[in-house]
Write a structure and sequence with these properties.
Blueprint: H1 2-16, H2 35-49, H3 53-80, E1 82-88, E2 101-106, H4 111-121, E3 127-131, E4 134-135, E5 152-157, H5 166-172, H6 174-190, H7 217-238, H8 242-256, H9 261-264, H10 269-283, H11 290-308, H12 313-319, H13 326-342, H14 350-360, H15 364-372, H16 377-386, H17 391-428, H18 433-442, H19 447-464, H20 470-478, H21 483-492, H22 497-506, H23 530-536, H24 540-550, H25 566-579
Parallel strand pairs: 1-5
Antiparallel strand pairs: 1-2, 3-4, 3-5
Helix pairs in contact: 1-3, 2-3, 6-7, 6-24, 7-8, 7-10, 8-10, 10-11, 10-13, 11-13, 13-14, 13-25, 14-25, 15-16, 16-17, 17-18, 18-19, 20-21, 21-22
Length: about 575
C-alpha cells in the first residue's frame, strides 16, 4: 500500500513537470532505463517526499517500466488485436507478491477461454473473474462484457479441489452455493405469512422500527433476494472467507439494481452492502479496484444521506438516537481514508476516524456491569453506543428495546393467526387456499371484500372461457403442456400461441398465482400464493434449502451494526504506520 502511495505522489509530480519517463533520456532506444537521469530525478524528488533516495529511485523505475510495457501493449493491440490484461491474483497464488501479473488475450473470445488460460498459467483452480465489481460470464465474449486492453481483472478462488474431497467440493462449490441461496430465498419470498407461524418460516420487509413496508410484489422479491445474498456474504465475511463472500455480495448488488430508487433511499441495506464490498477489496488486497471502490463508497455516502437525513435527523426521529449507526460512518471514513492514501493523498480524515473510533470503542468496565445485569454482549455494546456511553441510560434503553421486540413479535403472530383464520373461513365456502390467500391480500385482510373479489373472479373466469381458441389450446397440448396451464397462458396473452408458449417455457410449464392476478402493492402479504409456497417448501429438499439460508440470517435485526471494531483497529494502525513515514501533506 505504501508503494502505491509513493507512486501516486511521484506521478503527480511528473505530471506537473510534464516529464514522460517512457521517452528519452529516461528510456533508451532498447527500452532500457537511462540510469543517470533517473538517479538525478530521484535525488531531486526524495527530499520533497521525505523518503530515501533509493526508495524513490525504485518507484520511478517501476513507473517507467509500467509505462513502457503499456506502450508495447498498445502497439500490440493496434497491430494484432491482442489485449494485455492486468490480473489481481489470490494471495496464495502470488509467488512474487510485489510483481504484477499480466496476460495477453484476444477480446473476441468467451470468458471460459480466459479462465482456462489463468488456471493453466498460474496454477489456480476453480476461479471466478471480476471486472469493475461485476462477475464475468464464462459463456459471453470478453469484449461484450466491457473487457478492454489494460483492464484490471480480479481473480477470485472458489475452492481448492486438491485439499477437499470431491463430495465436499461439490457441496461447497461457489456456483452451487449461489444457486442454493437464490432458490432458498425465492421460496421465502413467495410466502405470504398465512401458514402456521410455529412451523413455517416467513420473511417480511420492515422499516427501522420493525413495521412492515408496503412494497410492490416484484420489488419485494428482488429485495428479499438481495438481502439474502447480502446476509450470506456477511456470514462468509465473519468466517474470513472473503473470496466467497465477495461473489455473494456482488450477486446482492445485482438484485438491488432491480429495486426502484425510492425504495433504496428508504433502507440503509444498499449502503451497507457497498461498504462490505469495498471492505472485501481491502481484505483481498485488491485496492487496484480503486475506481469501483471509490464509486461504491460515494453511493454508500449518498444513500446514508437520503436514508438518515443531512445531520442524521431522520434517523434521530425514527430511533431516538444515532449512536449505533455511527459504526457505519467509521467504516465509511476509514475506507475513504484508505483509498485517499493509496491515491497519494496523505491528508486523510485520520483524526476524524480516530475520534470516532475512540467514542465507539466500548468501555470494558461498563460492558462487564451490563453483562452482570443479564444483558448479552451485543446488547451491551449497542446500548452503550446508542446512549453515548451512559451506563444507566444504556440499561434502560436495552430493557425498552427488549420489550418493544417482544410486543412486535406478538403483534405479528396475532396478525398471522387472524389471516390463517380468514383463509380457513373462505376455504369453507368452497374456494381454494391459493385463491383465498390472493383475494384476502387484495382486500387488505377484509374477509367480506375478499369474498366479493372471489365471486367477481369466478364470474370473470366463466365469461373468459369462450375467448380461448380450442385449436390454440390443442397446439399447446401437442407441445407437452397440460390443459389448465395452456388455457391460463392463452387467456393471459390474448389467445396468442407464441406468447403463451414463451410464457409457459419461462415458468417451466406451471403458472404461479402471482402471474394470474395483477401485481400486489402490499408486502405484509406480498405473495398471493400460499398454496404454492406451502407446496414448494413441503419437499425435504426445499425444507433443507430454506433452513440452510435461514442459518445465515442473524436473529438480531441490528447485527450489521454490531461491529467489534477489531478489524477497524487493525486498519487504523496500518494507516498510522504508513502515514508516519513522511510529512502529512498533499503532493
Amino acid at each position: 500500500m505504501a508503494e502505491q502511495n509513493t507512486q501516486a505522489k511521484l506521478k503527480n509530480l511528473l505530471k506537473q513537470e510534464r516529464i514522460q519517463l517512457w521517452n528519452p533520456p529516461f528510456t533508451q532506444e532498447d527500452n532500457q532505463p537511462g540510469d543517470q537521469h533517473l538517479q538525478e530525478l530521484a535525488q531531486r524528488y526524495a527530499p520533497l517526499l521525505n523518503l530515501p533516495e533509493a526508495e524513490v529511485g525504485g518507484a520511478l523505475e517501476s513507473i517507467r517500466a509500467q509505462a513502457v510495457e503499456r506502450g508495447k501493449g498498445n502497439r500490440t493491440f493496434r497491430e494484432t488485436s491482442v489485449a494485455t490484461l492486468e490480473l489481481l491474483l489470490p494471495r496464495d497464488a502470488k509467488k512474487e507478491p510485489k510483481v504484477k501479473k499480466f496476460l495477453e488475450t484476444r477480446l473476441d473470445v468467451p470468458g471460459q477461454q480466459l479462465v482456462d488460460r489463468i488456471t493453466e498459467e498460474f496454477s489456480v483452480k476453480h476461479v471466478k473473474l471480476i471486472l469493475n465489481g461485476r462477475t464475468l460470464s464464462v459463456d459471453q465474449r470478453l469484449d461484450e462484457q466491457g473487457v478492454k486492453n489494460h483492464s484490471k481483472v480480479m481473480v477470485l478462488k472458489v475452492s481448492d479441489a486438491e485439499q477437499i474431497s470431491k463430495e465436499e467440493e461439490e457441496k461447497k462449490n461457489q456456483k452451487e452455493s449461489i444457486q442454493r441461496t437464490q432458490k432458498g430465498f425465492q421460496i421465502l419470498s413467495e410466502r405470504d405469512g398465512s401458514e402456521d407461524p410455529d412451523t413455517t418460516p416467513f420473511l417480511e420487509i420492515a422499516d427501522q422500527k420493525g413495521n412492515p413496508l408496503k412494497i410492490p410484489h416484484q420489488e419485494k422479491k428482488a429485495l428479499i433476494l438481495a438481502m439474502g445474498f447480502h446476509e450470506k456474504g456477511r456470514s462468509l465475511m465473519k468466517r474470513k472467507q472473503y473470496d466467497n463472500a465477495l461473489c455473494h455480495l456482488l450477486q446482492a448488488d445485482q438484485q438491488f439494481s432491480k429495486c426502484g430508487s425510492a425504495l433504496l433511499s428508504s433502507v440503509d441495506n444498499y449502503a451497507v452492502l457497498q461498504l462490505d464490498i469495498v471492505w472485501c477489496y481491502w481484505a483481498l488486497e485488491a485496492l487496484s479496484c480503486l475506481e469501483d471502490g471509490r464509486n461504491r463508497l460515494q453511493r454508500a455516502e449518498d444513500c446514508f444521506l437520503k436514508c438518515y437525513g443531512e445531520q442524521q435527523q431522520r434517523l434521530l426521529m425514527i430511533k431516538g438516537n444515532t449512536g449505533r449507526e455511527e459504526v457505519l460512518f467509521l467504516r465509511l471514513y476509514l475506507l475513504q481514508s484508505l483509498l485517499s492514501y493509496v491515491e497519494g493523498n496523505d491528508r486523510t480524515s485520520r483524526s476524524q476516524v480516530e475520534d470516532l473510533y475512540g467514542r465507539l470503542s466500548p468501555d470494558s468496565e461498563k460492558m462487564s456491569q451490563l453483562l452482570v445485569l443479564g444483558f448479552t454482549e451485543r446488547e451491551a455494546r449497542l446500548g452503550l453506543r446508542a446512549c453515548g456511553g451512559d451506563l444507566q441510560e444504556a440499561a434502560i434503553h436495552i430493557s425498552n428495546q427488549r420489550q418493544e421486540r417482544e410486543e412486535l413479535k406478538q403483534r405479528e403472530r396475532r396478525k398471522r393467526r387472524t389471516r390463517m383464520e380468514a383463509i380457513s373461513s373462505l376455504m369453507e365456502l368452497g374456494f381454494s387456499r391459493t385463491d383465498a390467500a390472493r383475494a384476502l391480500h387484495h382486500a387488505e385482510g377484509d374477509v367480506d371484500k375478499a369474498y366479493s373479489v372471489l365471486l367477481d373472479s369466478q364470474a370473470g373466469r366463466s365469461s373468459s372461457q369462450e375467448t380461448v381458441s380450442p385449436e390454440r389450446v390443442e397446439q399447446l397440448l401437442y407441445l407437452g403442456f397440460d390443459r389448465p396451464s395452456a388455457e391460463e397462458a392463452l387467456r393471459l396473452t390474448g389467445d396468442d400461441v407464441q406468447s403463451a408458449t414463451q410464457l409457459l417455457l419461462d415458468n417451466q410449464g406451471v403458472l404461479s398465482p402471482d402471474l394470474l392476478s395483477p401485481p400486489s402493492t402490499s408486502s405484509s402479504s406480498s405473495s398471493p400464493s400460499t398454496e404454492e409456497a406451502g407446496s414448494s417448501s413441503s419437499s425435504p429438499e426445499d425444507s433443507e434449502l430454506v433452513n440452510e439460508v435461514l442459518e445465515d440470517i442473524s436473529r438480531h435485526e441490528e447485527d450489521y451494526l454490531d461491529l467489534t471494531l477489531e478489524e477497524e483497529s487493525e486498519l487504523i494502525s496500518t494507516l498510522k504506520t504508513y502515514l508516519s513515514r513522511g510529512p502529512s501533506h498533499t503532493v
